Amino acid sequence: MAEPLLKIENLHAYYGESHALQGVSLEVNEGETVTLLGRNGAGKTTTLRSIIGILDDRRGSIRFRGQELVGLPSHKIGRAGIGYVPEERGIFASLTVDENLLLPPRVADGGMSVAEIFELFPNLEERRSSPGTKLSGGEQQMLAMARVLRTGARLLLLDEPTEGLAPVIVQRIGEVIAMLRGKGFTIILVEQNFRFAAKLADRHYVMEDGHVVDTFPNSALEEKSEALHKFLGV
After folding, report:
1. Of the candidates 1, 25, 13, the residue with the CA atom closest to the CA atom of residue 207
2. Which of these, 85, 86, 126, 142, is most buried using a 10 Å CB contact count?
3. Over the stretch 46-85, which tens digit does the pLDDT of each residue have?
4. Structural domain of 113
5. Is residue 232 part of a domain?
6. Is residue 142 in a domain?
């Protein structure tokens, strides 16, 4: 068996005195799309922030392509080939679409060109001179994803990419994720919309109170429906 692209072992994370992650372990293989499921406060976003290094107080092991990430600053983790799209999107309000798009450095060969990105997200090409403050929520989400795709990162951390978006935009985001999956990107998806996530994922991890409480392949969704109702209320 090949070594997982990402391997987390016994990860603990803290916000001050709050013990947010309590021994999380998970693996993601190259080319997989894996979801983190759970109610608000379960530890899903904290797991993504721990991977990318935004949280200073994290203990345990996070290995990406065999390299230990715990102890590395976030900019070095990003340059290793990990792209993070936060729930709040992180668009620079005073910069145009073009400026936002070109701001992050390339970290590896194989990143999408601006032309390819505009083909993927035609709305952004129409708004390329507009400042971030003038973009709709859907356009901001597209820009946040596009910015990462240009860098050449191959592991994408997507935190609630459909939150608060109109159904037509949700559908487009789903199509883009499916396309990226088909191109061999590795994706960790945090998503409250379970029905959206179920169409895209290879495997699921269920989290509760800072722990991983279950993991199963997408093919086991039906037999796991009762447990999912308990943990997610779906």
Report:
1. 25
2. 142
3. 999 999 999 889 999 999 999 999 999 999 999 999 999 9
4. 6-227
5. no
6. yes
Q: Which strand (E) or helix (H) includes residue 63? A: strand 58-64
Overall average pLDDT of the 37-51 stretch: 94
Between CA 9 and CA 29 the distance in angstroms is 15
Q: How many domains does the chain have?
A: 1
For residue 84, what are its two tokens?
């993070």
Q: Is residue 78 part of a domain?
A: yes
DSSP character string of 130-159: SBGGGS-HHHHHHHHHHHHHTTT-SEEEEE
**Backbone φ, ψ for residue 225 (5° rounding):** -60, -40
Q: Which residue from 222, 223, 221 is spatially nearest to 37, judged by alpha carbons? A: 221
* Tokens linked to 107: 């970290």
Please give the order of strands across the beta sheet that includes 6-15. Answer: 18-28, 6-15, 58-64, 67-68
Can you spell out the DSSP letters for 166-198?
-HHHHHHHHHHHHHHHHTT-EEEEE-S-HHHHH
Per residue in 75-121, pLDDT (tens digit) is 999 999 999 999 999 999 999 999 999 999 999 888 999 999 999 99
Residue 187 sits at the vertex; the CA angle it makes with 19 and 107, to the nearest 5 degrees, is 95
Asked if 12 and 210 touch (Cβ cutoff 8 Å), the reply is no
Does some domain include residue 83? yes
The CATH number assigned to the domain holding 70 equals: 3.40.50.300
In DSSP terms, which residues pair with 36 in a beta bridge? 190, 205
